[in-house]
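Limitations

Structures in this collection are predictions, not experimental determinations, and the ligand pose is part of the prediction. Treat each record accordingly. The example that follows, with thiamine diphosphate as the small molecule, is included so readers can see exactly what is and is not provided: the inputs are given verbatim, and the output is the predicted complex.
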Amino acid sequence: MEKSVLIAGFGGQGVMSIGKMLGYAASDAGKYASFYPSYGAEQRGGTANCTVIISDEEIGSPAVSKLDMLIAMNQPSFDKFAKKVKKGGSIIVNSSLVTSKVEDSDIAAFYVPANDIANDLGSPKVANIVILGAYIGLSGALSEEDGKAIIKKMLGSKADLLDMNYQAFDKGLQAVK
Amino acid sequence: MSKEFIKGNEAIAEAAVRAGCRFFAGYPITPQNEVPEYLSARLPEVGGHFIQGESEIASVFMVFGVAATGIRSMTSSSGPGFALKSEGISFLAGGQIPAVLVNVSRGGPAIGTIEPAQQDYFSAVHAPAPGGFRCFVIAPQNVQEAADFVYEAFDIADKYRTPVYVLADGMIGNMMEVVELPKMRDLAELPSNDSWRFNKYNDDGSARILSTYMPMGELMQKKNKEMAAMYEAWEKNEQRWEEYMVDDAEYIVTAYGSSARIAKSAVKELRAEGVKVGLIRAITLFPFPKDAFAKLDYAKVKKMFCAEMSIPGQYIYDVQNAVLGQSQIIPIQTSGGVILETDMVVAAVKENL
Amino acid sequence: MEKIYERVSFTSKTSPTGYCPGCGHGTAHKLFARALEHFNLRDKTVLVYPVGCGGLAMPWINVNVIGAAHGRAGAIATAIKRANPENFVISYQGDGDLAAIGTAETIHAANRGESITVIFINNANFGMTGGQMAPTTMLGQTATTAQSGRSLEEHGAPLRMAEMIATLDAPKYVARFALHDAKNILKAQQGIMKAVELQVKGEGYSFVELISMCPTNWKKSPAECANYIDETVLKAFPLGVFKDVK
Ligand SMILES: Cc1ncc(C[n+]2csc(CCOP(=O)(O)OP(=O)(O)O)c2C)c(N)n1
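Predicted complex:
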């Protein structure tokens, strides 16, 4: 089973770090994973995106034509990439910043107000962890344990932030249930 | 062995260190910057040296100098930088100095784009510089192979005393994948180069001279013949390719590097729909895997497709030269940083069934 | 109300310069654009652009541009001016471009005394490629290829191009200014005016180095960058006019 997701947003929204966390988690879970960032000039200040593929076998193209899933962290990303999602695929919409709705009825839409949830938790920075939770809740490519393990690993010495991050992760999971 | 989730450029750099590379000189250029950045910190940890040259020309000649003293050495760059390195590559080949060159290629000509492309094929394979020589050229398709081939490149370079050119691209350099890195080599186990390294005197006390200047035509020709014989030996012994579902194939797609992994996805998709299609992936680009094409049963092959991220096509010339008119070859090409998509390959094959 | 400030007439109203907040390239562009406007040179100008962040303002500056290969602007500008003396030729370059890969072209154009105006942006790193060490990086300053900081033993001291060029016989005007506060920007404007006028009068080669901040790669806020320039950069790169031949 091969699952692709494109994560896109403003530089600074942690788009690349969500992508890398998925890759690290998949790697730790013994799966194949690829993380392909857009490294063009648009990175500086503009929009950033990356494609992550998690698979049980060797991965073909790391930049796929049709996505299983899109995570749209901001409006321009939604506008640009929603049409790349395949029929039967899904879109996680950061509804804190994206006002559009998914119009294609063959695509499952999940509206997660990641920034609002993060602000309620008292740390705007964990919006990407909310999204990580939502991804894991939906994609089936990684387990809840995989997700929590990678959060712990990435935080490293900043263990005092673990609770807050786990809470953000759980909120993300619940938001797509 | 443990696996790591690592960026292509860093895998290339770490694999070099593990292969025994103890000298790197380079100059910044996207999309390969993490290679020098990583090595600037890593090489001193293992007693090696890193120098950021004032240009690619300086960098490649630093490598020439150090490699001539028998220390495993590498440089990396991308298209515009390789344009400048060409003089040094010619000296490496002419001086029979083993070294590893990594091109994390991007779109051109000139400054072009920093996005990934396969537009340096001719330059790597046929004309790394004027003077009619070749490099041993090998092309990884993913991060694992980028690490493995760089690692192996040092052995090939030593074996034949030649520059070995690893032709990667910005996609491989900048993506992260799960990789098993090769083991750290003990420098003591590396083949001895005492017989030739130019900072050692001969046993009888005579001096060693590394000069690529051949005052007499006959001498130059003799050298050219020796080099030609080496290239023939490569063609006989070192061709490498991968075949995927070729046995019963009526349609053959061929590609190398990143394009090949994309083409393979397309072949899987087409097979799932019952199309009898297979893939030939060139792994060595020089020597070109002619045998893979020579042994095809052209009575069975209806059409061939050649996918590459270069317009105009370059790889396709070598494919044509190997197929010798026995099959139609349909190009599937993107260029300048536009990534080849699986759908394009699928569509091209279906249109031609 | 009296108008005391105006956009340079020929620059784009719609395209931004494309620079990061705090970057000196934007200021430098505004200053030389102002000088072109002042001497009414826009329609004669050929701007030779480097490879580096310098070239990002191409859509904004709205003058004719010939894009050089990395480091070769000095050669290209030389030849354009020789064959087209009626053109006004600027070579605008970063420190990787002018002082690393292009050192030979830089020195030889200066030494021949070509009738060109060189504007040199010294931001103490390779900006466009993401913050590698440049010949102008401060001792102790970290860079992605000098992660524990530039060291004198390993990398040598910051290369002072203006001082070097001032030792040559041919150059007519060689100066260094900074762009980190209003006072210095005003001085830089005067220096650039002077350098431009020199070419207008056909008097020869001029070289204006501009100390410029790079908040993105220095990983400092613009205010911290300005302090860093005052406290550290200007010690290695003292401001001043090194040559002014009357
Ligand atoms: C021959 C060649 N080598 C390397 C590069 C990659 N490259 C692009 S911009 C640049 C350096 C930019 O630094 P600098 O000249 O200091 O200008 P800045 O961006 O800081 O203004 C380099 C090395 C290139 N394009 N061509």
